[in-house]
Write a sequence for this structure.
């Protein structure tokens, strides 16, 4: 009988506050207090996390159940109702921020998404990627509109811009970003401004879908782009401390000249490059995120301030005897006069991302600015910057303060050790500087302790105490209930690399870099309470004996029987000793690099070792023979642990994988994929029902035992299928665009490679399966049409001719062939329809046109019919034109389609008129206009024509 195994599946993930994506501020919920600081959206690796800034708690968590891709970019519409997330595989998801449900799924890029931007109406989304392409998506029709190809490197920023007359100039004909009340919401987003690591700034006309202007922004890469709220000014950043300002002239009245004009350069205070530039939506400020621990805030001066500053400079230069030619260079148009540095914020760790907070009309405060900053140490901070009543020269830097921080539910540094309590309800995680205790079921943080650089940890019997081994050689003893450090013991002269507690709970053994293994006993001593005469019992560790070895001890383990102790040394060997006499028993050698972890099975018969040489070795403790050597991972294996009461074991590696093994048959049972970086440590529950792992990505993952059995043969077949599917889709991705161009342009394909616009498409397994379903439906439907046509023809001569045997699927559903094919098309997602139709061979295209001819006579969904028809004609244009049989078919389609579209147009017009009437009626009965009497009389007097009397009668 084929043996089956019980596998493990991911149950929960916690410990991550903000991963590598940007963050975005959300206004507080309507039910929240007016004192709330709002919410922040961050990426928790593959999850979307919503945090309450004031309380530091997690409000909600959204997860894509289909994949394990890391989120790389986040954007939201202006009202915050929809949130877009871009992933490392090039896919995009649109979420409803209120319910947390997934609305739309797009797939078009071949590499990670780097930036996302909604237009003002929230109906279009632009995405930039590492593949140097920009794609504009339609959220209403749920499809990609077009792909813009002109950049030669990663896209760093994209912004929709509006086209509106007379919004480009201020009162004196110059750009003025201090006029923040200019309304650009009414104008259509006709333009798109983009920057890339190729150093270019490009302006795209979205009506013609072409790049109309290209400017060289910086010497090297262009890392960020910020546009003022009134869309008259843009700031770009490069590799150095220089920022460049650009004037934007986007109105229809610009006939000649450039629409993007360089104004000049600004010098930042930080010498590192700026990674993000963001303007405040209501105030004349913009913030700059540097590639260090700083955020700079700059202010735009008013026209009066600029005029006074220029006059002051000219006056002082004249007093110093500067000639008039140099004085003429000091003008009000100088960008260094118009922008000055306002504040300089230093953070405790490197800045990963930031966003302005309190940016809605209900939360905006005129007397201060608010910033949320995501740091590289897995925390988010909220800063408040006070604004002065007036701005004077040489005034002190404004005060800023950190009001809130989200840092409790995560470690600042990598988790290096993990331990599960004896009742499997708590887990302790230790890192450099902190020790945290978590509730496994609720994933809430119960305790946080300050500690040294932790390398190993373990619960002591009773789960009331925790012991931690540190890098400086100390053993720290913590009391869980009182959240206190009981004792710090200088145990070793070097790092304490490993520790283990005996099965009976009476002995603690530690191994250190000072080449010794030490044994400790737990003693209860009575200590006098300071300031009183009372005494209280306290746990103490007493060193009973030590084992001196020849090299640094990297790992130690006591056998469950209490008879042996195994220690791995820096010389690549593992030595086994008797616990009672410390006499040498076995020397296990064979690894090419040091053994990083080891464990002994429940029956003390097997010892498993993992090494930096990527191998796992299984040894017998009776004779010290190597049972099996397995090349287990693609990188160093950091940890290996036996499962309870079995010879199955787990291994964790730097290759991001955790593997489940059968120690008797030496078979790999399962691969646990979930972590996005090196897995440092794992721990198995005492009841064997779950596994906990911690990695460099700061995440703690709980893997629960599943009820679904695993058969190794099926597992191997599934892995081969996944490998084949990945190879198939990658090959189709490479040929997709070229095939489309060759079909569309033929011999002009070479010229079309330089085109700036292309079709949006990406072949995935889902689109291939959808295409196969369409082909299958067309084959069934085409045969049924021929069958029914022959039956009707035969019925003319034989009225009693029996109905032929139709396809079982059609007969079961009692549906016509055209309705069956149409139902298959309707089930395909809108974003995947064109990619599914793209795989149809030409003989199936003729069958599809045959069905379209039937559909247009009695249309159910005219939009879907038109989309299918137009795409097939665009792709197979040359073959269709050369086919004489299809000419009468297309003429019939054209005639009926025009009639149906005309009816659809009239129906839409009627509905629009009805909606306008309903709106006018509502406004008439529910809205009142307030008119100022004085202003009304003044306006009336101005417009009234006065008679001039020359004589009096």
């Amino acid at each position: 009988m084929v043996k089956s195994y019980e596998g493990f599946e991911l149950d929960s993930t916690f410990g991550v506050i903000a991963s590598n994506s940007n963050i975005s501020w959300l206004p507080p919920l309507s039910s929240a207090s007016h004192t709330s600081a709002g919410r922040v959206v961050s990426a928790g690796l593959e999850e979307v996390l919503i945090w309450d800034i004031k309380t530091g708690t997690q409000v909600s968590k959204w997860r894509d159940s289909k994949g394990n891709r890391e989120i790389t970019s986040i954007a939201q519409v202006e009202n915050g109702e929809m949130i877009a997330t871009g992933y490392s595989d090039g896919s995009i998801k649109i979420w409803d921020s209120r319910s947390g449900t997934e609305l739309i799924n797009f797939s078009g890029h071949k590499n990670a998404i780097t930036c996302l931007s909604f237009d003002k109406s929230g109906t279009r989304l632009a995405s930039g990627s590492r593949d140097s392409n920009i794609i504009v998506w339609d959220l209403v029709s749920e499809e990609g509109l077009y792909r813009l190809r002109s950049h030669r490197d990663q896209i760093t920023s994209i912004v929709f811009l509006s086209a509106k007359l007379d919004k480009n100039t201020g009162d004196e004909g110059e750009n003025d970003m201090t006029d923040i009340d200019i309304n650009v919401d009414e104008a259509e987003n006709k333009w798109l401004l983009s920057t890339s690591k190729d150093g270019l700034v490009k302006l795209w006309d979205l009506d013609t879908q072409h790049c109309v202007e290209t400017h060289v922004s910086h010497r090297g890469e262009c890392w960020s782009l910020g546009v003022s709220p009134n869309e008259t000014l843009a700031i770009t950043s490069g590799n150095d401390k220089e920022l460049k300002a650009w004037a934007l002239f986007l109105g229809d009245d610009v006939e000649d000249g450039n629409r993007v004009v360089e104004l000049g350069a600004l010098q930042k205070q930080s010498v590192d490059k700026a990674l993000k530039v963001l303007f405040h939506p209501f105030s004349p400020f913009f913030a700059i995120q540097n590639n260090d621990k700083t955020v700079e805030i700059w202010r735009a001066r008013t026209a009066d301030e600029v005029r006074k500053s220029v006059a002051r400079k000219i006056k002082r230069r004249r007093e110093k005897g500067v000639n008039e030619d140099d004085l003429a260079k000091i003008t009000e148009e100088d960008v260094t006069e118009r922008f000055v540095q306002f504040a300089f914020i230093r953070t405790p760790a490197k800045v990963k991302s930031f966003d302005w907070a309190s940016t809605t009309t209900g939360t905006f405060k005129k007397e201060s600015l608010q910033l949320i900053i995501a740091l590289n140490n897995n925390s988010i901070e909220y800063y408040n910057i006070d604004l002065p009543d007036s701005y004077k020269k040489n005034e002190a830097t404004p005060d800023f303060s950190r009001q809130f921080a989200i840092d409790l539910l995560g470690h600042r540094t990598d988790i290096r050790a993990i331990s599960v309590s004896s009742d499997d309800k708590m887990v302790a995680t230790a890192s450099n500087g902190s020790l945290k205790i978590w509730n496994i079921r609720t994933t809430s943080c119960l305790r946080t302790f300050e500690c040294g650089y932790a390398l190993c940890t373990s619960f002591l019997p009773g789960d009331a105490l925790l012991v931690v081994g540190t890098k400086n050689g100390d053993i720290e003893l913590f009391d869980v209930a009182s959240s206190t450090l009981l004792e710090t013991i200088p145990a070793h002269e070097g790092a304490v690399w490993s520790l283990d507690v005996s099965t009976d709970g009476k002995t603690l053994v530690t191994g250190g870099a000072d080449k010794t293994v030490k044994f400790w006993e737990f003693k209860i001593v009575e200590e006098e309470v300071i300031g009183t005469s009372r005494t209280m019992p306290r746990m103490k560790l007493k060193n009973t004996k030590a084992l001196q070895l020849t090299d640094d001890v990297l790992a130690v383990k006591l056998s469950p029987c209490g008879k042996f102790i195994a220690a791995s040394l820096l010389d690549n060997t593992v030595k086994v000793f008797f616990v009672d006499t410390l006499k040498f028993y076995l020397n296990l050698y064979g690894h090419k690099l040091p053994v990083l972890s080891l464990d002994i099975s429940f029956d003390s018969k097997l010892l498993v070792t993992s090494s930096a040489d990527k191998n796992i070795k299984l040894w017998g403790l009776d004779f010290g023979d190597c049972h099996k050597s397995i090349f287990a991972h693609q990188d160093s294996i950091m940890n290996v642990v036996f499962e309870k009461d079995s010879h199955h074991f787990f291994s964790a590696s730097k290759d991001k994988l955790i593997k489940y093994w059968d120690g008797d048959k030496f078979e790999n049972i399962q691969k646990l994929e979930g972590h996005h970086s090196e897995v440092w440590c794992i721990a198995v529950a005492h009841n064997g029902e779950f596994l906990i792992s911690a990695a460099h990505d700061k995440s703690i993952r709980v893997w629960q035992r599943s009820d679904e059995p695993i058969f190794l043969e099926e597992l191997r077949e599934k892995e081969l299928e996944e490998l084949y599917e990945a190879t198939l889709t990658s090959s189709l991705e490479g040929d997709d665009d070229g095939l489309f161009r060759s079909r569309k342009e033929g011999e002009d394909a070479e010229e079309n490679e330089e085109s700036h616009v292309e079709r949006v498409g990406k072949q995935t397994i889902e689109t291939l399966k959808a295409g196969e379903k369409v082909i299958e439906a067309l084959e069934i439907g085409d045969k049924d049409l021929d069958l029914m046509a022959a039956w009707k023809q035969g019925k003319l001569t034989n009225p009693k001719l029996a109905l032929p045997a139709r396809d079982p699927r059609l007969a079961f559903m009692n549906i016509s062939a055209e309705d069956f094919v149409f139902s298959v098309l309707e089930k395909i997602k809108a974003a995947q329809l064109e990619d599914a139709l793209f795989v149809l061979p030409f003989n199936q295209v003729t069958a599809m046109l045959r069905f379209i001819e039937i559909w247009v006579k009695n249309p159910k969904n005219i939009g879907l019919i038109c989309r299918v028809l137009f795409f097939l004609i665009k792709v197979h244009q040359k073959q269709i034109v050369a086919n004489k049989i299809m000419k009468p078919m297309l003429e019939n389609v054209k005639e009926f389609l025009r009639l149906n579209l005309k009816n659809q147009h009239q129906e839409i017009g009627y509905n629009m008129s009805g909606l306008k009437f309903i709106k006018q009626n509502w406004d008439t009965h529910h809205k009142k206009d307030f008119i100022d009497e004085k202003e009304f009389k003044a306006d009336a007097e101005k417009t009234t024509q006065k008679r001039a009397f020359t004589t009096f009668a």
Summary: The domain at 425-526+536-548 is CATH 2.130.10.10 (Methylamine Dehydrogenase; Chain H). Residues 165-174, 737-754, 949-953 have pLDDT under 50 and may be disordered.
